[in-house]
Amino acid sequence: MTTPAVAPLSVTDVPPVPTGTDPSPDIVACVEMWRAAHLDLLGHLDLTESPGTLAAGLAQQEYEAKQLLLAREGDRVVGSCLLRRPRRESTEVARGGMSVLPGADPSVVLRALWEAARPALVADGRTTVQLWSMSRAVRPHAPDVLVPGTGVGAVEHDGYAATLLDLGFVLEQVERHSQLEVDEGLERAAGLEHEVLRHADGYDVVSWAGPAPDSLAAGLAAACSRMSTDVPMGALEVDEEAWDVDRLRYVESTLAARGMLRVTTVALEGRTGEVAAYSCLDHHPGLPEVAWQEDTLVLAEHRGHRLGTLVKIANLRALREHAAGVLRVHTWNAGENAWMLRINEALGFREASAEAAWQLTGLH
Ligand SMILES: CC(C)(COP(=O)(O)OP(=O)(O)OC[C@H]1O[C@@H](n2cnc3c(N)ncnc32)[C@H](O)[C@@H]1OP(=O)(O)O)[C@@H](O)C(=O)NCCC(=O)NCCS
């Protein structure tokens, strides 16, 4: 049984530890709090980082400056705020999330974290702040729900949401979090394949685990930059990201430092050999039954050939080959991304929870 948090709370900065050293006690305490929050909301730990992956992620600051704050009531961690400030593009934006220990008062905890985070954001010229938070899956017309600016999806209008609204954040978008049982996905893939191949004539697929082959790295990097322009983002401010082979290799090295395995499939246009589509899944051996869907994208000029389904099917098979113990895949899609949702539903993904995207503009 937890007791509600009462003011005043202390908020402290958690400094990164050098890559390769043990996570600090603060990092361990933060992950324990996240675990409690995930168990309370989701009933499982499939989406929780380990102290090791969080520590390694915090140490990687080349493309984004990262700051982790912890709120404590006495010795007890009651909240966290993790913010990333992109260094190359979106340089007026900070992105991240705030978590609250179940049973603690979100109004007290979120306000304390926000007051502590604000000065560094202002000093760094960040005028827009975007936060993502989890919610149970709710229907848009149910009582006590909030519908985002996009008009699609909904999240609970609870104490957490009410506090962010009070602080000036706007609910811009809701993403649907869905889960796939891999065995069912593979079975459905076999049934979908014939129709998909009929549309995808003239394309070949290549799959791998780990870093991209040198011959495909430039084409894959070019496709990665389209994720920042082509995915529906509602009114969230996002600058186009410039990707090249150096950036791809940097991301691959950060995944390796966190102990993650990335499984990737590309579709190549047979005539030109160009990368037309790609999809990747991430897996960590610390959670042997779980993988997380990362990017899936078909370049605009290649859409309509079912390449999204083609690369997802091939990548699911590659996942089974390289990480045979994975039973579940999690994915997040904007509610208005009908094209991606249709593909995922055909593969057997089912709604599990919702994710709110909040934005505050005009910070000074
Ligand atoms: C989602 C996506 C991968 C699907 O591409 P795809 O595999 O080419 O789509 P399909 O072949 O299944 O397309 C089915 C139909 O929808 C259309 N379509 C697909 N994506 C579309 C889009 N973004 N906008 C408009 N129409 C689209 C196709 O042209 C096709 O039309 P047709 O039946 O008249 O020929 C692609 O839209 C995309 O890359 N979007 C941007 C990246 C993205 O949102 N990724 C997911 C992030 S969570």
Give the topology:
Blueprint: E1 10-13, H1 25-41, H2 51-59, E2 64-73, E3 76-86, E4 93-100, H3 106-123, E5 128-135, E6 145-146, E7 155-156, H4 159-167, E8 170-181, H5 182-199, E9 203-209, H6 214-225, H7 227-230, H8 245-257, E10 261-269, E11 275-283, E12 290-298, H9 307-322, E13 328-334, H10 338-347, E14 350-360
Parallel strand pairs: 4-5, 12-13
Antiparallel strand pairs: 1-2, 2-3, 3-4, 5-14, 6-7, 8-13, 8-14, 9-10, 10-11, 11-12
Task: List key phrases describing it.
364 residues; 30% strand; globular; Aminopeptidase; alpha+beta; binds coenzyme A; two-stranded antiparallel ribbon; 12-stranded mixed sheet
**Bound small molecules, deduplicated:** coenzyme A
* Topology as a string of helices (H) and strands (E): EHHEEEHEEEHEHEHHHEEEHEHE
Name of the CATH class of the largest domain: Alpha Beta
Give the amount of beta strand, in percent. 25-35%
Multimeric state of these chains? single chain
Number of strands: 14
Number of domains: 2
Measured distance between first and last alpha carbons: 40 Å
Coarse shape = globular
Helical element count?
Answer: 10
Helix content: 25-40%
Mean pLDDT: 96
Radius of gyration: 21 Å
Strand order of the largest sheet: 1-2-3-4-5-14-8-13-12-11-10-9
**How many strands, which pairing sense, and closed or not: the largest β-sheet?**
12 strands, mixed
Instruction: Please mark out the parts with pLDDT under 50 across 5 or more consecutive residues, or reply none.
Output: none
Biased composition (Low complexity): 10-21
Region (Disordered): 1-21
Protein name: Acetyltransferase (GNAT) family protein
Organism: Ornithinimicrobium humiphilum
